[in-house]
Write a structure and sequence with these properties.
The complex is a heterodimer of chains A (416) and B (255). By secondary structure, chain A is α+β, with helices and mostly antiparallel strands. Chain A has three domains: 127 residues, 2-Layer Sandwich (Beta-Lactamase), CATH 3.30.450.70; 130 residues, Beta-Lactamase; 126 residues, Beta-Lactamase. Chain A is 36% helix and 26% strand. Chain A has 13 helices and 18 strands. In chain A, the strands form four sheets. Chain A has a six-stranded mixed β-sheet with strand order 6-13-12-18-17-16, with helices on both faces. Chain A has a five-stranded antiparallel β-sheet with strand order 2-1-5-4-3, with helices on both faces. In chain A, α5 crosses α8. The longest helix of chain A has 24 residues. With 255 residues, chain B is an alpha/beta fold. Chain B has one domain: P-loop containing nucleotide triphosphate hydrolases (Rossmann fold, 3-Layer(aba) Sandwich), CATH 3.40.50. Helices cover 31% and strands 20% of the residues of chain B. Chain B has eight helices and eight strands. Chain B has a six-stranded mixed β-sheet, sandwiched between helices. Chain B is globular. In chain B, 42% of the residues are buried. Classes of the chains: A alpha+beta (416), B alpha/beta (255). The interface between A and B is medium-sized, with 34 and 33 residues. The structure holds guanosine-5'-diphosphate and magnesium ion (MG). The site of magnesium ion (MG) has 6 residues of chain B, from α2. Chain A: One of its GO terms (biological process) is vesicle-mediated transport. Chain A: Its main location: cytoplasm. Chain A: Pfam families: Fuz_longin_1 (PF19036), Fuz_longin_2 (PF19037), Fuz_longin_3 (PF19038). Chain A: Belongs to the fuzzy family. Chain A: This is Protein fuzzy homolog.
Chain lengths: 416, 255
């Protein structure tokens, strides 16, 4: 397998018929015999009452997962940054995507495999975005990626009015799949469902409006709802989730202009938030390269690796640098969450991956990592997680103070 | 007014207007650099004050069996990438296309705003509200067949009666797709001529394939895409203009 390629396979669990195969960074297709062997070894184990979940070779990892005894997903990754945790998330996201588009019933009772194969093509764009996405991190956190706008008060007002006029309670304003504002009820959707809807909209090819049937994997996996989307300006969509009424036409003709034309300028200025995720007017410490802030109650996150965009644009190798920053922040997040912040609970007892914390009755609230290219610092409060990526010249002892200050800015001043 | 006649191409509008100096200036409002300019729902084309214009909006429902080329045609008209792998469109998607036209009888140019409604067949079958939503207040319905699939051509009259009831009265336009695949064509010029005579409906021929790329190797050349799309856009504009004039009593419907 090449460099950092990833292959994703989907098969029926009962007969092992391949349903689709997607890949990242690879021009090659997996041969039928490789697909057969990958599925065969899982099936063989199954027949021996052994559940095969993952394996590793020197340069790759393979994970298997069966959903509802009906669908098998297999991922094979040569990406050195991948972990079992991140690949498991990928498989969950991919299956949830299939539910979102097809509905759980048709996935659990497969009547016509050829028909299902055809229908599944409608999932490819969203699945591919989980394989390749870089600007968002909801695939890993299963939280909703957000941006902070200076105009959020007026945009929120418009959105609330618009959503209500469209007979719905679930509305959000999206830029490139990140939420600018959303209605109160939207934040009460299961976080996986809300995340998927945002990713869905940003993965589809641009359209003026859509009336898209969606099954919510957590909230309503067998009964479809309607997702209506309206492109206010290219790159900015307003979405509502609703039942049988109102018609797309009615909302588009009677409500979109009425509510949104008066705020054309604030809507357009959202486009400038895309990379940094928060306004240029807000200055953060010079040593911060990127961060991830999670609101644990609303399951929303703020994520960027371009805290100082002007500084960055002058560098020629910027693409590589950003990719490296993203990879570092993602691994640090995974490490911290699994080992220190919210390890899995089994029978009421916390299971740590290493022996050290088991000797203590309390849990870690802060942690840091120092490497040759970056420093990372994480802190946890009742309501938030904050993960920071620093330049190496930032003194290790000062990271806590900077973290606390950054947390203050976003949670107190911007109410995130 | 059912089966009202359709205008002879070029009789109501100047067909190659966008290639002369005046038309070229108007055309620039739907281009940005060499790419097609896209507009959201709360925007519209802007022109300097010395270039006055009116805007006329029309809802157009595009129908035809799965895989016939509905989504590809709409992408082509929008100047967007034509998808190479077919998957059925999920639910309804709409696209707005702006197109400046010079009607012969109008004081100033008119920018047509076509709101193209596209939906997948399984959505139509699964959810009752979808067909109704697509037809609701439509000004025109495009019935697509494929030149490489004779059965789709023979099914057009049935498709029309399945889609529209007697009292529904949008303009009806028949469009043959895959006209580029003449090696595999299954429908002859003669067939089309006969059809046109029998049903008194306009028939257009399209090839929805991506044109050349700009020097970045990725973006489509907006100007060339527009020239490719011009005959269909002009054709639709003329049919809708004609229909408006009959409705307004300015033109007799000369059946
Ligand atoms: N060569 C050629 N291919 C076409 C044409 N129209 C559609 N196609 C292809 O046919 C397939 C199905 O088209 P699509 O528009 O998605 O079908 P529909 O939306 O289900 O009606 C796509 O892969 C298109 O690229 C055409 O005019 N010429
Ligand atoms: Mg389609």
């Amino acid at each position: 397998m090449e460099g950092s390629s990833v292959f994703l396979l989907c098969l029926t669990a009962s007969s092992g018929v391949p349903l689709y195969c997607r890949s990242k960074r690879s021009s090659r297709q997996l041969t039928f015999s490789v697909i057969g062997s990958l599925n065969g070894v899982h099936m063989f184990a199954n027949n021996q009452d052994v559940l095969l979940t993952s394996t590793r070779t020197e340069n790759s990892r393979v994970l298997w997962r069966t959903f509802h005894e009906s669908i098998n997903l297999i991922v094979m990754s040569c990406d050195s940054n991948a972990s079992d945790h991140s690949l498991n998330r990928l498989l969950e996201n991919v299956f949830s995507t299939m539910v979102l588009v097809i509905g759980l019933d048709d996935l659990m009772n497969i009547k016509n495999v050829e028909r299902l194969k055809k229908d599944l093509r409608a999932c490819y764009k969203l699945i591919d975005s989980f394989l390749t996405e870089s600007e968002k991190i909801g695939d890993l956190t299963q939280c909703v990626d957000c941006v902070i706008s200076n105009d959020s008060v007026i945009l929120q007002e418009c959105l609330d009015g618009f959503t209500q006029a469209a007979e719905s309670e679930f509305g959000c304003l999206l830029i490139g799949g990140k939420v600018v504002v959303a209605t109160e009820k939207w934040w009460r959707l299961a976080s996986l469902d809300a995340m998927l809807l945002c990713w869905l909209v940003s993965s589809l090819s641009p359209h003026s409006s859509r009336d898209y049937p969606v099954y919510l994997p957590q909230g309503s996996p067998t009964v479809p709802h309607r997702l209506l989307t309206f492109q206010l300006v290219p790159g900015v969509d307003v979405c509502i989730l609703c039942g049988p009424s109102p018609s797309l036409q009615k909302v588009e003709l009677e409500l979109v202009e009425r509510f949104w034309k008066p705020v054309l300028d604030p809507v357009k200025s959202c486009l400038r938030l895309q990379l940094r995720s928060f306004p240029i007017s807000l200055n953060l410490h010079q040593g911060i390269l990127g961060f991830l802030l999670i609101n644990r109650d609303l399951n929303k996150s703020l994520y960027t690796v371009q805290v100082h965009p002007f500084e960055d644009t002058q560098r020629s190798d910027i693409k590589c640098i950003l990719e490296h920053r993203r990879a570092s922040l993602r691994s640090f997040y995974t490490l911290t969450m699994l080992r220190y912040f919210s390890p899995e609970h089994h029978d009421g007892k916390i299971q740590y991956e290493e022996a050290f914390p088991e000797g203590f009755t309390h849990q870690a609230h802060q942690c840091y990592v120092v490497s040759s290219s970056h420093k990372c610092y994480a802190t946890k409060t009742d309501l938030h997680f904050l993960f920071l990526l620093f330049k190496t010249n930032v003194p290790t002892f000062s990271m806590r103070a900077i973290a606390n200050k950054t947390m203050q800015v976003f949670t107190k001043e911007f109410n995130f | 007014m059912h089966q009202a006649s359709f205008p002879k191409p070029g009789s109501l509008i100047i067909p190659d207007w966008h290639q002369n100096a005046e038309g070229g200036e108007y055309l620039s409002c739907i281009l940005r650099k060499r790419k097609r300019r896209m507009f959201g729902l709360i925007e519209q084309p802007v022109l300097p004050p010395q270039l006055p214009f009116d805007i006329a909006s029309y809802k157009i429902f595009v129908c035809g069996k799965s895989g016939v080329g509905k989504t590809a045609l709409i992408s082509k008209l929008c100047g967007l990438e034509v998808p190479s792998v077919h998957h059925e469109t999920t639910g309804i998607q709409t696209s707005r296309v702006y197109w400046p036209v010079r009607p012969r009888d109008s004081q100033r140019p008119v920018i047509f705003c076509f709101q193209l409604w596209d939906c997948g067949e399984s959505a139509l079958k699964k959810f009752d509200h979808i067909l109704l939503a697509c037809k609701e207040k439509a000004d025109a319905v495009l019935f697509l067949f494929s030149f490489t699939d004779r059965s789709s051509f023979e099914d057009v009259p049935a498709l029309i009666s399945r889609t529209l009831s007697q009292d529904e009265d949008p303009a009806r336009v028949v469009i043959g797709t895959r006209f580029d695949q003449f090696m595999h064509t299954d429908v002859t010029d003669q067939d089309v001529g006969l059809f046109q005579q029998t049903w008194q409906l306009p028939v257009m021929r399209v090839r929805s394939v991506n044109g050349p790329r700009l020097s970045d190797g990725i973006s489509l050349d907006g100007r060339i895409e527009l020239l490719d799309a011009a005959p269909v856009l002009n054709g639709l504009a003329e049919i809708l203009w004609h229909r408006d004039q009959i409705t307004a009593g300015l033109l007799a419907s000369d059946v």
